[in-house]
Amino acid sequence: MAGAVWVHGEVAADGSLARISTEAATAARALAAEAGSDAVGVVISADPARAATELARFVPRVLAVTEPLTADHAAGAIIAQRLASLAQADAPSFILTGAGPEGRDVGGVVGALLELPLLVNATSVGWGDGGPRVDQSAFGGKQLTTSHFARDRGIITVRANAVDAVPLDQPGTVEQTEATGELHLPSVSVVDRVASQAAATSIEEARVIVAGGRGVGGAEGFALLEELAQALGGVVGATRAAVDAGWIPYALQIGQTGKIVKPQLYLALGISGAIQHKVGMQTAGTIVAVNRDPDAPIAEFADVLVVGDLAEVARALLAALRARAG
Amino acid sequence: MRIVVLTKPVPDPASGQERLGPDGRVDRAAAPAVVNGNDEYALEAALKLVEAAGEGDGHADNAHADNAHEIVLVAMTPANGRDALRKGLAMGAHRAIQVTDPALAGSDWLATVRVLEAVLRDLEYDLVLAGADTSDGGGGVVGAGVAARLGLPYLSYAATIEPSNGRVRVNRLTATGHEVLEAEMPALVTCTQALGAPRYPSLKGIMAARSKEIAVRALADLGIEPASVGAHAAGTAVLEVRPPAERGATRVLREPPDEAARELVAFLAERRLI
Predict the structure, then answer these.
(1) Which ipTM score applies to this complex?
(2) Residue B137 forms contact with A (CB below 8 Å)
(3) Taking burial as the number of CB atoms within 10 A of a residue's CB, which of A163, A211, A252, B39 is the most buried?
(4) pTM of this prediction?
């Protein structure tokens, strides 16, 4: 029988489980079912209880490891060392993690310490020929690939919104443990944590993104996008041009050297659809564009193109949404 | 201040022509190679740090760097991968190390990590900078892997990098803001666009780059067994490459805003998006 499938449960700033981990956990459970093995969640944090309980909604067994160091140290390498030593003892076949910043840090360090192969940025995780089959998207969705591990072990980082999170009928159990043993990698202190007013949720995890480009015209223009995003239950994003102009922070930039996103709905306002932006969003479920220019490149890959002034259309859409909500 | 910048030549994203061959490897003939975007931010950050350090002790002109102030580019590339390094030298890096070996073709991430680790073991540095991820692989894991193998403090997703008195302070971007990190040097930092736009090479820089050293290293120079890297040793394999599903035809709404908005709401409701 194959070894277990583990999933790293990422703890958000408020102590809850990051949504990306609920998706990775659902994928881990499906793999374990195919492999005839166990799905196990691992949460490593100064205060893992809440996130571990939440992760147990998705996998039958969760290890909650208390590691006080993550309270005031960069978490990635610390979690990775703990995870690596647990994995050395229990030898899971596969370890899944989210493909966001923490998941990448953890995956990279665990992979290097245990010399494991990595399949990164999975857009779907299936099973075939006795092992995981991982779909990935190349060059922002220009091509798709399916890959596997050459041997029967590896780490998979899973993109946000790639898997629909499905809870178990009965929540699983949580086992509390303390981290023990020395850490060998030098630790990095966190001297401060600063929340920006920009976004409470990660743009990579958002199901709806209302994105603006140069056509928005200024920081004030983004206030209207923010209203629209709220009405749609989403968050605001931007092109590099809008970020470079200083209208919106870099954390919200979508595209090459920014974020790669895959929301269910991408509403692009005043965005021409230049290649550097396209690679960040073209795999979105539904793309709606508002542009004055019916020949803008985005017309080639949007599902709907509204030809018109973005502020006028945005206000009309806001009014129509509010009328519908009653 | 001595800084190593890890760089990777990637197919030019601006060309729109990048593609994988049927074997799942980057088709290098399809698009010209350029320095990976995030690596250029790393190099620009390195240039600014070395300039600031040089001004501090009266060696502002980094063209005359001595051992105290130096930027070394390191890249693992195919044999013809020198052009991207040359651009980095023209921007102001002092020398480059190109690792190239036919046995590296088809290497997985771990082989890349081991090669970069081996090169770094022969160098002295205060900082190793690398792009937070690459536009052709995009895993964002190599920097973490290299730091772990070398036992370096690892500071990721940097928006600022401030060295002082043997320590380095980094603002690390998170989903909802940033963390201020601090660690001993030497350390490895992964870099983002928030560090600032890379400079264009000056004419003087381009001329100077012609005489700068690009040292070539093969696997034997690094003490790495050829059979332990490359496609045969890779822990992953691409089974299939295919084009994405076609999107349906674009529906174009040219009605006045109110009417277009109503149609759009109906469309979104039909797709259960609202």
Answers:
(1) 0.94
(2) yes
(3) A211
(4) 0.93
